[in-house]
UniProtKB/TrEMBL annotation:
<feature type="region of interest" description="Disordered">
    <location>
        <begin position="1036"/>
        <end position="1070"/>
    </location>
</feature>
<dbReference type="Pfam" id="PF18759">
    <property type="entry name" value="Plavaka"/>
</dbReference>
<protein>
    <recommendedName>
        <fullName>Ubiquitin-like protease family profile domain-containing protein</fullName>
    </recommendedName>
</protein>
<dbReference type="InterPro" id="IPR041078">
    <property type="entry name" value="Plavaka"/>
</dbReference>
<dbReference type="InterPro" id="IPR038765">
    <property type="entry name" value="Papain-like_cys_pep_sf"/>
</dbReference>
<feature type="region of interest" description="Disordered">
    <location>
        <begin position="331"/>
        <end position="350"/>
    </location>
</feature>
<feature type="region of interest" description="Disordered">
    <location>
        <begin position="413"/>
        <end position="445"/>
    </location>
</feature>
Length: 1314
């Protein structure tokens, strides 16, 4: 039964059910002997099975290693599935074994008399067995067992055995100094003068525990040694006895079972010593404290002296040694969970899919809900790690890890009242411990909106689209779902269409007996169900099909499928889900109330110049609908074939840009599929063939967009449109923006390829830092018309004549001819993806590689430290054949950091200016100041770019994409910021509007099927929203996380996370959205629930942690109660362990359109982590700190994330008590500091330089801070010109002594670190 699931993907529940059938729990004892035999047989079978399965881990590791030495085989996935299932089976076998034991004990407890009979039968059965030897237990015979029973535990032989042990085998006088002897034998436990006449029930319980441990240990061949030291007092033995009874074994801390306890060898020795008040105990405590304090000082001095001449981290030589030993022993650690299926390759044009594939923040450890590791290390690995830790701890502290608790476990002497109240020395502690005394909030700039006074006039209020649909029904409940017979019928149809269930699968479902009758649906098959879906009104208008052909070749037909763009605009205008967000009038936004042009702010399209100018050309009270068009040919097939589609998308600028960019918001509509067929080449020259393609595009677009010319005519009546709220306005749709890449920009604007589509600059003058005369629609039209007239008179062809003026004209009219209030050249939007990342940055990377060499650049990129949100290119970048836009974005984040020392300062400045321009161009809001930054960076580029020519990397800069940067400022002022109409947003639509339809088709005559597929998807989405409104549901369906949309970068937030907020950030270099707050997310349960203080200090590379924690606790005391710094540092911790977290989720304020999440790590060396990782952060150091800029902040390395215990041990009694009320309840962090920021950044790189802060004793300076004082993560990169060969991504933060704070790490970082 168990093996039937081995070769298929199974889960825990399958094996649980199988084991429950094979090994059922006994309902009652019945025959006691038979019951025990049955239970014993079950346990032996499970134990044997567990032993066999325990070898799977080694087998899997060997298999994974062998996989790396050959090409991938088709059978490997099946093998990985089998190995994974065996792992699951092992876990369930162990769980089943434990469950049977607990059930058996419970059954025994409920039947004491039956158990007594069972015990007697078993003892009689085993009395004469030769393999049962009772001689191994001294002073205990078989007869002692005959007295055992319900309520009868001890006899005189057992008591005499321990009297003999206490009196004759201990090393002090009569053994009476031991705790158990004094407690069990004498009334006066201290003087041992008056003997007891009888043993109490408590005495018997203690002796029984000790006796059973002796028996069980001897039967297993293990000894439980008697503790001769008077101060051990037998507590060691007592705890081990209790552990045996409760958890079936004596385990050390590293090998304890999941349900068991973990103990160190000294156990509760310290608690006993601290609660004793006699002179002997007090003197011992004092001497130990003095020895430990002196030993610690000597060790630190020795560590600093031995490493003189190197970076004086006192732990710097020890911690890497542990890593080195682990790496040498386990050079290629296998993945804990191997993938079961092959991961599909992402498409080249799908940047969001690439983002998922490039996740750089994957965990090396897997936590369960209890905060423990799911995978327990083999004993030999754990023993090896502990041995390495012991050696290192001995070198650093002069003690084993087991004894390191006591090293710091000294009491805080009660300070003199005058000394505690003086507050001397508390200032420094307080400054590093207290949280910020204010939130990061400032008053908003008094921004002023100046809205157009007459635009957007409401003519009347009519029924919105939902009320119109409601009017079609009779008012009956079931009729509300017409054309569907009932709600259930609608929900089934909705499910089938949205989940893309094939028609054959749906038909098979309905053919199952009684399914159709039980569901009560009226359709018999998928066809009849889809017919009902098709009866839902079209959202964006009906589809039309037209054939185009050339006069001389009528047999060549080119099919265009389209729908009326005005109907598409009506659908967007009247969508109730968008009604609350639409804007109907233009505005001017100012930073203050002066209303000066120099105070203008540009963001949304209605803040730009186009809408404000267009409003003056239409009739009074009219409403402008700025039309945004986008075209982009896309491949439908990936690996084979050449199937492609040429979609045309439409949206309007009245919809906010954040909403337009979300695919699930339905704010963009597909209005056409242009023909992808090519004219036959036979009989045509290259120029003729090219001109026919041009003509085909323009005539197709003219046919599709013809209704817009009439609707937008300012001399006409416009179009009355009903909004989602029922308000009727007179709308004039005007072509405002056209989004496409450079080749299509030339095609759309009839511009000669290689020149600028926005100005008249010649191809050989594109390197000039100034713009030429702008191209205008009138100028281009006049040139084409003049060429046509010349051709009629027998002159040169239209194309040849227009090419003289850098116009790619022909004997046809451009589609935009006759569009009112439109200049097609100013409609061309900036293209961040293709112009900057796939253009400018592509050139820049190539030039840098030629200058410094591909191998050298790869080497530096490989050595950069891993950083949240930044892809780590472990193999460099030279082997990337076809870089996606996302890959180039990540390269742009680290490129500048790798150039120091490799190219001259002039070259670095040139690179920096371009990279800064790329970041500035993507600001979601601009004012005259930020626009001036863009102009300054372009000027810096032009002043320093000759460096690449002098180095032979480039001969000239007549590159259209570089020239296009000069137009960005004007475009932002005209149509709003670049995120209004970036090509990335429209390329994402290819999945929903092209590729999904292609996959759903039968791959023959696909475009009619794709149109039908898209139409049905739109219909069910609209009808679903209507039903939500009609049934008065709480909200429309959430569209922000629909299938296919990627979640933001770095972090998956668990439902059981805790969040911590600091105040809303305001002010700074860029404009901010309201209601912004930094969120800090931690898992509900700690990664390491009970980690000793010594282990934290060692494994987290934090030798100053304990001192910083003492100063922090001292600073938490009320003013006047704080001790001097020297006194506080001698204090004793009232706890031995802390709760430790390894990961911190950061969700920064909403400065950009979407928060950029980051997963910050403070992950130490473990069995599963062969190297540690401690990320760097920006910390709010004092009250001058802001949410942006570096003033009042400091760079730091996050070493420990922890929380103070809620229960501590009372220093007098040793019993657990609640932690002091003045201790902070929030999570804390220990950070090691870098030097404070200087007044200005490095001139060439524009980055601030910092160095690790080291104390005079060689220990890194650090502090314990509230976790909420962490503002953001940051990336540190070496600032040295020469990088050592032994540096790598794991040790570079430890080995390098000088860093730059990389402000190009992300858009958020660029806007906050300056």
């Amino acid at each position: 039964m168990l093996t039937s699931f081995i070769s298929t993907v199974a889960n825990n529940s399958i094996y649980q059910n199988a084991l429950d059938q094979l090994y059922p729990v006994l309902p009652s004892l019945g025959s006691t002997t038979r019951a025990y035999s049955y239970f014993d047989s079950q346990m032996k079978q499970l134990q044997d099975l567990s032993i066999e399965l325990s070898s799977v881990s080694t087998l899997r590791n060997d298999f994974l290693v062998s996989m790396r030495s050959h090409d991938k085989l088709s059978s490997e996935n099946l093998a990985l599935i089998v190995l994974r299932n065996l792992d699951i089976l092992l876990i369930e076998v162990q769980n089943k074994k434990t469950y049977l034991e607990v059930s058996w004990w419970k059954l025994l407890d409920e039947c004491p008399v039956t158990v007594e009979n069972l015990l007697t039968d078993l003892m009689n059965e085993t009395r004469n067995r030769p393999e049962e030897s009772w001689k191994t237990v001294r002073n205990i015979t078989y007869r002692d067992f005959s007295t055992l029973g319900a309520g009868r535990w001890l006899n005189d032989e057992i008591i005499n055995y321990f009297i003999d042990k206490w009196c004759y085998r201990s090393r002090n006088t009569l053994g009476f100094g031991t705790f158990f002897a004094g407690t069990c034998l004498f009334q006066d436990k201290t003087s041992c003068l008056t003997a007891k006449r009888y043993l109490t029930a408590d005495d018997e319980e203690r002796v029984v525990l000790m006796w059973l441990t002796e028996i069980l240990g001897s039967m297993r061949g293990e000894s439980v040694p008697f503790q001769p030291n008077a101060f051990d007092c037998g507590v060691h033995t007592l705890w081990h006895l209790k552990h045996v009874l409760e958890y079936r074994g004596v385990n050390d801390g590293s090998h304890s079972q999941k349900d068991g306890l973990s103990f160190t060898t000294n156990m509760d020795r310290s608690a006993h010593i601290n609660q004793k008040k006699d002179d002997l105990h007090v003197n011992y405590r004092t001497s130990q404290d003095q020895k430990i304090h002196q030993l610690f000082k000597d060790t630190v001095k020795k560590a600093t002296r031995d490493r003189a001449g190197r970076t004086p981290h006192s732990i710097g030589d020890i911690f890497p040694d542990i890593q080195r030993q682990v790496r040498e022993r386990y050079p290629s650690p296998p993945s804990t969970f191997a993938p079961l299926v092959e991961t599909p390759q992402p498409e080249e044009d799908d940047d969001e899919v690439y983002d998922k594939a490039m996740d750089v923040d994957s965990d090396d450890e897997v936590d369960n809900t209890e905060g423990e590791l799911l995978c327990f290390p083999p004993p030999n690995e754990d023993q090896f790690l502990r041995q390495a830790m012991n050696t290192s701890l001995q070198e650093l502290y002069g003690a084993d890890i087991e004894e390191a608790d006591d090293l710091f476990n000294f009491l805080l002497p009660e300070g003199d009242d005058e000394e505690a109240g003086s507050g001397v020395g508390s200032s420094s502690a307080t400054s590093s411990a207290q949280p910020m005394q204010r939130t990061l909030e400032e008053e908003d700039d008094k921004m002023t909106w100046q809205w157009h006074g007459t635009a957007g006039k409401v003519l009347r209020v009519d029924k919105d689209v939902h009320k119109q649909w409601l009017g079609l029904s009779s008012g009956k409940k079931d009729d509300a779902y017409s054309p569907f017979a009932s709600q259930l019928e609608w929900e089934i149809s909705h499910w089938a269409v949205k989940e893309k269930v094939s028609q054959s699968s749906f038909n098979r479902l309905l053919k199952i007996p009684q399914v159709k009758e039980k569901l009560g649906v009226s359709f018999d098959n998928a066809r009849s169900m889809l017919n009902k879906v098709d009866q839902i009104p079209e959202r964006g208008g009906s589809w039309f099909v037209k054939q185009l052909s050339f006069k001389d070749r009528p047999q060549e037909e080119f099919t265009v499928r389209y729908r009326d763009p005005v109907e598409a605009i009506k659908a967007l205008w009247g969508d109730p889900s968008l009604a609350k967000d639409l804007v109907y009038k233009p505005a001017k936004l100012f930073r203050n109330s002066r209303l000066k042009e120099e105070d203008r702010i540009f963001s949304e399209m209605w803040t730009g110049g186009f809408w404000n100018v267009a409003q003056t050309h239409i009739p009074f009270g009219g409403t402008v609908a700025p039309v945004i068009l986008a075209t982009d040919k896309t491949q439908l097939t990936q690996l084979s074939g050449s199937k492609s589609a040429y979609p045309v998308y439409l949206t309007i600028g009245n919809i906010p840009k954040d909403l337009r960019r979300k695919p699930g918001s339905r704010a963009c509509i597909l209005i056409a599929y242009l023909s992808v067929d090519k004219p036959v080449k036979k009989g045509l020259s290259k120029t003729q063939l090219k001109l026919r393609n041009y003509q085909l595009f323009h005539q197709s677009m003219a046919m599709v967009l013809e209704p817009l010319k009439v609707a937008g005519d300012p001399t006409g009546p416009g179009v009355e449109m009903v909004g989602g709220d029922g308000a009727v306005r007179r709308v004039y749709p005007l072509l405002a923006t056209y989004v496409c890449d450079y080749p299509e920009q030339c095609l759309v604007t009839c511009t000669k390829y290689g020149t600028c589509p926005k100005c008249q600059q010649k191809a050989d003058k594109l390197h000039l830092p100034t713009l030429a005369e702008p191209r205008t629609q009138r100028w281009t039209t006049e040139k084409i018309q003049a060429a046509k007239e010349d051709a009629k008179r027998g002159g040169r062809s239209v194309h040849s004549r227009t090419m003289v003026d850098d116009i790619a004209g022909g004997n046809y009219d451009p589609f935009w001819l006759g569009f009112p209030v439109t200049n097609i050249h100013r409609c061309i939007a900036p293209d961040v993806l293709h112009q900057m990342y796939q253009g400018v940055l592509k050139y820049l990377i190539g030039w840098v590689q030629r200058i410094i060499g591909e191998e050298e650049l790869d080497d530096r990129i490989r050595k950069l430290p891993p950083t949240p949100g930044v892809r780590h290119f472990a193999k460099g970048i030279s082997n990337l054949t076809q870089m996606s836009g996302t890959e180039r974005k990540h390269i742009a984040r680290v490129l500048l950091a790798c150039l120091v020392g490799k190219i001259e300062a002039r070259g670095i400045t040139a690179c920096r200016s371009l990279l800064h321009f790329i970041h500035l161009a993507q600001y979601p809001s601009h004012d005259q100041i930020t626009l001036s930054y863009m102009i300054t960076e372009l000027k810096t580029w032009h002043d320093n770019r000759d460096y690449f020519i002098s180095e032979g990397a480039r001969e000239h800069f007549n590159i259209p994409k570089f020239h296009s940067l000069l137009h960005y400022v004007d475009s932002i002022q005209w149509i709003g910021t670049t995120d209004n109409c970036n090509t990335e947003a429209f390329e994402r639509l290819h999945i929903d509007f092209a590729k999904e339809g292609w996959r759903a088709s039968n791959k023959r005559d696909v475009f009619p099927q794709m149109v039908t597929f898209i139409s049905r998807q739109e219909k069910v989405a609209s009808f679903d929203f209507y039903q939500s409104w009609a049934s008065n549901r709480l909200e429309a369906p959430d569209t922000s996380h629909q299938e296919g949309q990627e979640s933001p970068i770095g972090l998956d937030v668990d439902q059981e996370e805790e969040s911590h907020k600091i105040g809303r950030p305001k002010g700074g270099k860029s404009l901010r959205q309201p209601d912004s707050a930094l969120l800090l997310n931690l898992a509900k349960n700690p990664t390491e629930p009970r980690k000793t203080l010594a282990s934290v200090s060692l494994l987290h590379g934090a030798p100053g942690f304990l001192s910083a924690l003492k100063l922090f606790l001292n600073s938490c005391l009320p003013f006047g109660k704080q001790a001097k710094k020297a006194t506080a540092l001698k204090g004793v911790f009232p706890f031995k362990t802390l709760e430790i977290w390894h990961n911190l989720g950061l969700i920064p304020p909403k400065i950009l359109e979407e928060p950029e999440k980051a997963l910050v790590k403070a992950s130490p060396l473990t069995i599963h982590n062969k190297s540690s990782r401690f990320d760097t952060v920006i910390v709010l150091e004092n009250d001058e700190a802001e949410s942006t800029a570096v003033r009042g902040c400091r760079a730091a390395r996050l070493r420990v994330i922890f929380r103070l215990p809620q229960m501590i041990k009372d220093p007098d009694s040793g019993f657990p008590v609640k932690a002091p009320a003045h201790w902070p309840k929030e999570h804390l962090a220990y950070v090691t500091w870098y030097s404070r920021f200087k007044s200005s950044p490095d001139k060439a790189t524009g980055m601030y330089k910092v160095e690790p802060s080291i104390g005079s004793n060689g220990v890194p300076l650090g502090a314990v801070i509230p976790l909420s004082n962490i503002r953001q993560n940051c990336m540190l990169v070496p600032s040295k010109a020469v990088w050592d060969n032994h540096w790598d991504s794991d040790n570079i933060l430890d080995e390098c002594s000088s860093f730059f704070v990389n402000n190009l790490q992300s858009k958020y970082t660029y806007q906050t670190i300056y």
